[in-house]
Amino acid sequence: MSTGIAQLARTLDDAQRSATATTQLGDALSIEDAYAVQREILRLHLQRGETYAGPKLGFTSTAKMEQMGVSDIIVGFLTREMELPAGQAISLAGLIHPRIEPELVFRLGHDVTPEAGEDAAALAARIRAAADAVAAGMEIIDSRYENFRFTLSDVVADNTSAARFVVGEWQDFPRPLSGLSVEFEIDGAVVERGVSDAILGDPLRAFDQLAAMTVKYGFVLPAGAPILAGSMTPAVYLEPGQHVVARIESFPDLTVDVA
Ligand code: OOG
Ligand code: MG
Known about the structure:
Layout: H1 3-18, H2 31-47, E1 52-58, H3 62-68, E2 74-79, E3 83-84, E4 99-108, H4 120-130, E5 131-141, H5 152-157, E6 162-167, E7 171-172, E8 181-186, E9 189-195, H6 205-217, E10 226-228, E11 236-237, E12 243-248, E13 254-257
Parallel strand pairs: 3-6
Antiparallel strand pairs: 1-2, 4-5, 4-10, 4-11, 5-6, 5-7, 8-9, 8-12, 12-13
Helix pairs in contact: 1-2, 4-6
The protein binds 2-oxoadipic acid and magnesium ion.
The site of 2-oxoadipic acid has 14 residues, from helix 3 and strand 5.
């Protein structure tokens, strides 16, 4: 790994830990190098004693791509320390300019290890077969860049703005996931509406994208891993005191209260 990559990782990691936005890296960084920065940030998290949880997909919906002006699917990592228990008030301490978004979360029933030479379609089928549960979720994203603005390589390097996540009650999987209505409610008012098909036309396509990206960049898929499929609506800025509900048809409502 080049010192440049280590240095960029350190800058973004420091920005996160000090909750201070940093300047964008710009277009000079290739996507491959941006994933190398992200891997180095993961290494720093693990070195501090955090535990890897699983991958998260980003920009799987046009709602999100249009909101952020980015048009490619991205993958980041989650650690167990980023997970907040459902139904408890959350603190925004340590976050820069957090936003929240409604997601579907799959759970892996067992490890999935890509085999040498395995193609993305075969791997996608294995990941999908390994998924044993699905839940409503919410992701709290918090770009480490000033004004929450970034290029594709910026946001990949910054671990796809990952900060916190909440998972609702697990439901059996497989189950119908297509065409479900989504309401995102803050303080009793619906602020965003969507449909589960906002995720790639069908949430099950998240497995195809995760597999394709795993073949390319080598994400780790351990037993129990949550897989965030990507937001179904634009993200909304979080403020102290808010009561947030993700209402996804056929799932129990998931709520987050901000302290
Ligand atoms: C990047 C993360 C995108 C999603 O669900 O689409 C993402 C961002 O919007 O800052 O997590
Ligand atoms: Mg997300």
